[in-house]
Amino acid sequence: MNAPADPATATATATKGERTRARLTATAAELLQRQGYHATGLAQIVEESGAPRGSLYFHFPGGKEELAVAALHDAGQEWRARIEAAIDRSPDLGAAVVAVCALFAEKLAASDFQLGCPLATVALEASASSEPVRIACRDHFAGWEASIAARLVASGVSAEVAPRLATFSLATIEGALLLARVERSPRPLEVVGETLRALLAMGVR
Description:
Layout: H1 7-13, H2 16-35, H3 42-49, H4 53-59, H5 64-88, H6 93-110, H7 120-126, H8 131-154, H9 162-183, H10 187-201
Helix pairs in contact: 2-3, 2-5, 5-6, 5-8, 6-9, 6-10, 7-8, 8-9, 9-10
């Protein structure tokens, strides 16, 4: 897998408009994680991003919903790249699972247990009221599942078992993220990482 592009290099070569758009989506993504879709207003996004208000409607003429979908897309892609990089650095699949759980635990701790999965808060809150948001969340979760399944197959898990194990692994990690935020502790992620590693070590094929 190719290494993800260096964000500093990408920022340096981006146009002014691209940098403004990136500030808007990055700010929106963080606010959506912290406080949810309905509590996040466009005025707050503009203020915290430092972008001109006119830029918001230039880049996102569809308003808040269009911006939210773009923010979820960018955040999901960024985290997929981080997760895959952590997997690539791991010597085996069991170690990779532990590394991914540790990555999420570090992010949670660094954000005072406010930022976990970049999609989960919005997926739980807004999927029933916004079809574009639901589709964005569904597509990203499906992409993560497909990526996990491909890694499992490459490690020797059968093509029949891999998709089910991918769904189980993703659902378990997402649940651990929720528990970790509630407990304000990395413990659930640590437990899940070690348990999934033990399951893989048993030779699930």
